């Protein structure tokens, strides 16, 4: 068994604050997680390289263990005709905001991958994780030479084996029960709702790398079960969305606490790639109409989602949430992480 990652990072709590792109993860959240004894991750996705550099510098100044997550290139090209039809389909939802989605051009990009990698090589951080794609072994070696631990998000035994072959130091084993984007390398293949502990156990038996489990976590019992299956730590995200340090919008926070919202589902209606969230009108009406296509569909729906969030309309924004979303509370992040680690009751 390889040396554990937590010890190498100087962390004392077996929980990790997930990188939640799009606003919820803030430097304050990452610093608070680190000060609690956990590891927190900055979300590099959807930011410019300059923004990533600034947040790295801010968290580094606090002197806590932390990491950065990047979306590794693994594009899902969109069919132009399907893209155009979807823009037309969304017109009714966009009309109240005077947004013409048919004017949004197809945008295929790699999330500023090379520039962000350059930042992390110039400003080495304790750990970097990758989602959506596995980086080239040469990059993994470069990061290791710079003193950075590398971790790959995987969703199957086959993906874990491929990641090990690339030379990464550890794995985040993510089940489809997790909130937000599912990190699968094959987004065209529907995910099976395998419990996280079961998936961790299968990968633990196949690959000799440290594992952090992720997905469906809502209690200390969930954390304990995933650790008992072979994970040295458990990654939590949805449980932190309402915490004091999160940058979660007011509209999103209200929806998470709404007792009438009882179901999460996996959809590609917001981004063209499978992701789990609370059901709302956009998901209900457009899930079957949305084409595969990431990041093109993400960019298409961005103007609508921003306008809806500003207007306090939860029916047209992505309310990413895992199956354990009822555990999200308005507490300091340290209290939530310590409770999930089993150090306090409640």
From TrEMBL:
Alphabetical UniProt keywords: Detoxification, Flavoprotein, FMN, Monooxygenase, Oxidoreductase
GO molecular function, one term: nitronate monooxygenase activity
Keyword Cytoplasm: no
Pfam families documented for this protein: NMO
Listed cofactors: FMN
Source taxon at top rank: Bacteria
Catalytic activity: 3 propionate 3-nitronate + 3 O2 + H2O = 3 3-oxopropanoate + 2 nitrate + nitrite + H2O2 + 3 H(+)
Record protein name field: Propionate 3-nitronate monooxygenase
């Amino acid at each position: 068994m390889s040396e554990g990652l937590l010890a190498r990072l100087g962390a004392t709590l077996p929980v990790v604050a997930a990188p939640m792109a799009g606003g919820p993860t803030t430097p304050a959240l990452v610093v608070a997680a680190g000060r609690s004894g956990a590891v927190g991750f900055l979300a590099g996705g959807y930011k410019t390289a300059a923004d990533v550099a600034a947040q790295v510098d801010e968290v580094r100044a606090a002197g806590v263990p932390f990491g950065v997550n990047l979306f590794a290139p693994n594009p899902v090209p969109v069919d132009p005709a399907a893209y155009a039809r979807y823009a037309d389909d969304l017109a009714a939802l966009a009309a109240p905001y005077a947004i013409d989605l048919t004017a949004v051009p197809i945008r295929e990009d790699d999330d500023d991958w090379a520039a962000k990698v350059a930042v992390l090589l110039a400003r080495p951080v304790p750990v970097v994780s990758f989602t959506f794609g596995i980086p080239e072994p040469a990059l993994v070696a470069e990061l290791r030479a710079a003193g950075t631990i590398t971790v790959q998000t995987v969703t199957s035994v086959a993906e874990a084996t491929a990641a090990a072959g690339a030379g990464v130091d550890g794995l985040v084993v993510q089940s489809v029960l997790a909130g937000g984007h599912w990190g699968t390398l094959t987004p065209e293949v529907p995910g099976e709702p395998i419990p996280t502990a079961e998936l961790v156990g299968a990968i633990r038996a196949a690959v000799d790398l440290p594992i952090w489990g992720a997905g469906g976590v809502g209690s200390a019992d969930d954390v304990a079960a995933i650790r008992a299956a072979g994970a040295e730590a458990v990654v939590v995200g949805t449980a932190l969305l309402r915490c004091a340090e999160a940058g979660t919008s007011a509209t999103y926070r209200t929806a998470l606490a709404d007792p009438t919202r009882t179901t999460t589902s996996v959809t590609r209606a917001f981004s063209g790639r499978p992701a789990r969230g609370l059901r709302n009108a956009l998901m209900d009406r457009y899930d079957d109409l949305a084409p595969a296509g990431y990041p093109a569909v993400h960019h298409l729906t961005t103007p609508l989602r921003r306008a809806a969030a500003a207007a306090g309309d939860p029916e047209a924004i992505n309310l990413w949430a895992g199956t354990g979303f009822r555990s999200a509370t308005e507490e300091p992040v340290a209290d939530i992480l310590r409770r999930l680690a089993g150090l306090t009751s409640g």
